[in-house]
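Let us work through a complete example step by step.
Step 1: write down the sequence.
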Amino acid sequence: MPPSSAFAIPAETAAAGRQDRRIRLLLLTDTPVLAPGGSERFLQNLATRLPREHYRVTVIQLHDACMPNPGQVSARLAGVRLQSLPVRAVYDRSGLRAWLELRKLLRAERFDIVQSQHEKADLLNALLPRRGGAVHVSNRRDMGFKKSARLQQLFRYLNARFDSVVAPARQILSGLAQGERLDALQMTWIPNGVDARRFSPATPQARQDARRALGLEQQSVVFGCVARLTAVKCHVDLIDAFARVHRTTPQVRLVLVGDGPLLAQIQERMSTLGVADAVVLLSFRDDVEAILPALDALVLASSSEGMSNAILEGMACGLPVIATAVGGNLHLVQHEITGLLVPARDPITLAAAMQTLARSPQIVQRMGLAARSRIEREFSLDAMVHAFDQMYRRLLNQRTQRPT
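Step 2: predict the structure and record it as tokens.
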């Protein structure tokens, strides 16, 4: 069905939905569904890979970004109905309008499951009426670093309205238990998954081609970071660490993939430290799998993380990962086995870890093999989708057993 920027519930759609025996899943998100971020990729994978013979999926983005054209939707959200319902803030008129529209939609289409991710979507989901027996799920994608103390306090009361709160990292659930007093019986842990066919170790020829395309020398030791240029990703710390390594190991190079509001600040820091010529600064790319073969290792210097898709994709490509010991990184990166963990906001220790890999190709190879092996065992995309399917069925079964 083609997308629509005007939120509407066609009568024929509602009627068809009531006759459809499939599980009716409504996914709410604050951000544009086809945006390049990790939570958006997760949503795309979940919405399109749930078995179409068992699920009818509707996605609503609570954002004013222009809706994608039908070609984009058919290519990346095949079989999914996508609509836009812009919300500036839950507490203003746009929030009230969204709540009223969603309430009307639930009544018309009788969704079995309403799942939300990010703060605005979670708040609206929690505040929707609980008539009709729908299951309500909150999908937490990060450590909640954007939540104010007041918002955390609000969620302490609203969390009880969710049938389940699911997160990709146990560290997120632990933080919710402490900060929002989330009941352990509501918690569900489902790790992110990665497409291990799309992201796989490169052949020597693919490595040469990727480096040539980026203007990198074949003998260079290349570190890469795939992340939005925002404060939480701490690119300035990474540049500081890289500059230290470059002074003693001048053949190192750094590739930054991503765009964002801190571009000018990062460029200024590169220039000040004299490493601008050693850094390849790329903007957003939707072909990351074509860039990762050029790297020797992936680096993530974030001050907060949920479960990083960038780390999963790097590991799937057979790359060791240097990451800060925060959030889901602690679960993904096994220190000295699949990579190295360092303290957040510590460029000196980060530089030492980068230097270790820059000087030892044997360690790089050993850790890269271990990283790929772990992805194949524990973090496949099929396993993630299957786990969500099982959670949905469990919650729906519990719904049927509720006393009337």
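Step 3: interpret the result. The domain at 11-193+381-400 is CATH 3.40.50.2000 (Rossmann fold).
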